[in-house]
Amino acid sequence: MKKVLIAKPNYRKFSPTGYQMLLDKGYDVVCTDLDRDYFLDELLPMIGDIDGCIANCEPWGEEAMSAAPKVKILARYGTGMNSVDTEAAKRHGIMVTNCPGVNANSVAEHIMMLMLAGIRNLPKMNDMTKEGQWINLNFHEITGKTVGILGFGYIGKLVAKKLTGFDCRTIAYDVVHDDETAAKYNVEFRSFEELMAESDIICILVPLLPSTENMINRESLKLCKKGVIFVTDARGEVVDEEAMYEALTNGQVGFFASDVFVHEPATPENTPLLTLPNVIATSHNGAESYENLENCGIMTAQQIIDALEGREPVNRRV
Q1: Which residues on neighbouring strands pair with residue 5, listed in sequence order?
Q2: 284 noted as active-site residue
Q3: Are 259 and 232 in contact (CB under 8 A)?
Q4: In 3D, which of 293, 292, 245 has the Cα closest to residue 266?
Q5: Among 198, 204, 278, CA closest to 245
Q6: Phi/psi of residue 290, each to 5°?
Q7: Torsion angle, CA of 68/42/21/76, rounded to 10 degrees?
Q8: 226-238 tens-digit pLDDT
Q9: Which of 17, 20, 152, 249 sits between 20 and 30 A of 198, alpha carbons compared?
């Protein structure tokens, strides 16, 4: 009997179709009972005899792969690949898949929520009203503003689509230019430096790569308009958090709304940004819509089934 570890928290609850697909194949399915990702010392005792794993963000590196001699596939529940050492996977002959584009709409909607909450200072309005302070706060509108999208991939394109109803100017930076989609949503491509300088709101949606780590830093922040708003659902390491803290406290950046941080779980102790009033923080939650969770569950289950039955799984990365 094939054994499959589901390391994605709450998979049975939110991905019932995918879970049933695996049971219907007769696999021995073991689900995590944690509401968070495994730490390495928790993962290692679980994987000695597994044939496949639906992986979330637990660390799959050389040590874990060496401890899992039977594993044939790691089906990453999501898009990001930074929790999997792909070179180690190649050495061990392990297939690695992910779910590109499946979570794009959920994350794009989350970006829009953060953008609107930031430009209107929703946290302060909410707190004041609940405290009985019936005071009118002033804020800006998105209409007429320039919104810059760093990373014009699945999510960036959907953000651009959703912005078409806001009567704003949309610009984008990406190493690859999808001119057809850009034209469809009235997006103008700019260089990185031009986007930083021209934007009133900047959405960070690039993948974490050596070229994008600390892309937002002291030097790039100096290019921005004073009071610029940043919104991000990329990876925490794309932003130099110390530089962002300084920019938020000296007024160079007006608001920072983020779903991702360098240290996760983020706390005020390990992430000083959380102590600032002009920061909106969510808990890496942008993809957690019911619809996306079900769809990712189906895709990862099918990838596991295909790999264990000798077929090529979709969205194979290794």
Answers
A1: 30, 53
A2: yes
A3: yes
A4: 245
A5: 278
A6: -60, -40
A7: -70
A8: 999 999 999 999 9
A9: 249
Query: Does residue 1 contact residue 26 with C-beta atoms inside 8 Å?
Result: yes
Structure letter (DSSP) for residue 273: G
pLDDT in tens, 13-28: 999 999 999 999 999 9
Closest CA to 4 of 297, 312, 318, 311: 297
**Residue 315 per-residue DSSP state:** T
- Tell how strand 52-55 and strand 3-6 pair up: parallel
Rounded distance between C-alpha atoms, residue 63 and residue 48, angstroms: 12
Q: Cα separation of 291 and 172, whole Å?
A: 28
Pairing of strands 73-76, 201-204: unpaired
Catalytic residue among 12, 76, 190, 284: 284
Among left, alpha and beta (phi > 0; psi -120 to 50; other), residue 91 is alpha
Among 215, 282, 221, which Cα is nearest to 246's? 221
Backbone φ and ψ for 172, nearest 5 degrees, come out as -145, 150
Q: Could you tell me the end-to-end alpha-carbon distance of the chain, in angstroms, rounded to an integer?
A: 25
Rounded-to-integer distance, Cα 73 and Cα 52, Å: 5
- Mean pLDDT for the stretch of residues 117-136: 96
Q: Measured between alpha carbons, how far is residue 250 from residues 100, 120, 270 in Å? A: 38, 20, 21
Ordered domains of the chain (ranges, CATH): 3-102+289-308 (3.40.50.720), 104-281 (3.40.50.720)
Give the active site residue among 110, 190, 235, 241. Answer: 235
Catalytic residue among 237, 242, 264, 294: 264
Is the distance from CB of 288 to CB of 10 less than 8 angstroms? no
Catalytic, 264? Answer yes
**pLDDT tens-digit profile of 201-210?**
999 999 999 9
Main-chain phi, psi angles of 64, to 5 degrees: -65, -45
Q: Are 37 and 62 in contact (CB under 8 A)?
A: no
Q: Are strands 228-232 and 253-258 parallel, antiparallel or unpaired?
A: parallel
What tokens were used for 3? 């054994």
Residues contacting residue 220 through CB under 8 Å, at least 6 positions apart: 192, 196
